[in-house]
């Protein structure tokens, strides 16, 4: 099959379009013909080698972390899906590879595609929607009447997190640039901080939760936004000891992660705030719940542009600029 591969980790390097063996189909697996694949900052970070300690892939590696497509075969023990089903997913982190014609996915990580979305729209959602769900619902336990600050509201995670937080009944503040103020307001943001004009930590106060996806400086300033008992949750790091243990990291790597997050954990504790790091995981059950919200009109995809499959490297480069509004997708078929 045709696929885009990482031959060696290189910052800003191009993927190689080549032939790769069709993935092995295990008993609990579903073979999906990929019609579209979402493109994420995570893809660039894996390509650059930033996660090689946490995610020790064997090279060459087929890149790509989310997809929509059609089931073509199922393993002997699969009961939930059949050939012809339209599906979407974020594969498990050790089985990525959606910049390709086919991928094999454990049925537990798969969900039926929302009926009201195109393949491209559906492919834009699994990774970012699961990230938003696992932060807001699972980790933050966000409740009606609470207040949350979502950084980078016009980005892939931000556009979905705003909508999910509003569905949950929260008051939502977000940061964005001048050009995207109307976009995030239309998604439901109650308070919009234009970072080109204002410092968010001087505008927003007394919040219950912050979702951070930006750099260390923004993470540290976010403490000023939270009230005692608040939760600072980051999807961009630094990783904490709990994540290291959950990820099955060895003792040495656990100590490295402990040191990386020591400063922010210490300062958070001093202020009576909980810091945690979330690295989203594949979950077909959660994705099924998200499907219901999409079909009900509570969440809609926000798409920037769709690239043809052969221009996957251009799509990665565009995502790396940080200027995308919502998601970038590659049309595979």
UniProtKB/TrEMBL annotation:
GO terms for molecular function: oxidoreductase activity; zinc ion binding. Pfam families: ADH_N, ADH_zinc_N_2. Residues 12-330 form the Enoyl reductase (ER) domain. Gene3D superfamilies: Medium-chain alcohol dehydrogenases, catalytic domain, NAD(P)-binding Rossmann-like Domain. It comes from the Bacteria. Keywords: Oxidoreductase. This is Zn-dependent alcohol dehydrogenase GroES-like protein. It comes from Rhizobium gallicum bv. gallicum R602sp.
């Amino acid at each position: 099959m045709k696929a885009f591969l990482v031959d060696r980790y290189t910052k800003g390097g191009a993927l190689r379009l080549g032939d790769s063996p069709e993935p092995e189909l295990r008993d609990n697996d579903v073979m999906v013909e990929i019609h579209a694949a979402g493109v994420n900052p995570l893809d660039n970070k894996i390509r650059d080698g930033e996660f090689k300690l946490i995610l020790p892939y064997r090279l060459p590696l087929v890149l790509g972390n989310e997809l929509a497509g059609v089931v073509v075969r199922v393993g002997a023990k699969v009961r939930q899906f059949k050939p012809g089903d339209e599906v979407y997913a974020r594969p498990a982190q050790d089985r990525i590879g959606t910049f390709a014609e086919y991928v094999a996915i454990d049925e537990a990580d798969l969900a039926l595609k929302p009926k009201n979305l195109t393949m491209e729209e559906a492919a834009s959602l699994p990774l970012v929607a699961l990230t938003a769900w696992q932060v807001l619902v699972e980790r933050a336990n966000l409740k009606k009447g609470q207040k949350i600050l979502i950084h980078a509201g016009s980005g892939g995670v931000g556009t979905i997190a705003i909508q999910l937080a509003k569905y949950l009944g929260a008051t939502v503040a977000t940061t964005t640039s001048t050009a995207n103020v109307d976009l995030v307001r239309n998604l439901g943001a109650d308070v919009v901080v234009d970072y080109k004009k204002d410092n968010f930590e001087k505008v927003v106060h007394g919040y219950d939760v912050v979702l951070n996806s930006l750099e260390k400086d923004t993470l540290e300033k976010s403490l000023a936004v939270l009230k005692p008992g608040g939760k600072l949750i980051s999807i961009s790091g630094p990783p904490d000891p709990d994540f290291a243990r959950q990820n099955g990291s060895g003792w040495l790597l656990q100590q490295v992660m402990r040191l990386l997050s020591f400063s922010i954990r210490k300062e958070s504790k001093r202020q009576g705030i909980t810091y945690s790091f979330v690295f989203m995981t594949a979950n077909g059950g959660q994705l099924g719940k998200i499907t219901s919200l999409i079909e009900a009109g509570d969440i809609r995809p926000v798409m920037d542009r769709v690239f043809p499959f052969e221009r996957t490297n251009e799509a990665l480069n565009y995502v790396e600029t940080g200027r995308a509004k919502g998601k970038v997708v590659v049309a595979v078929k």
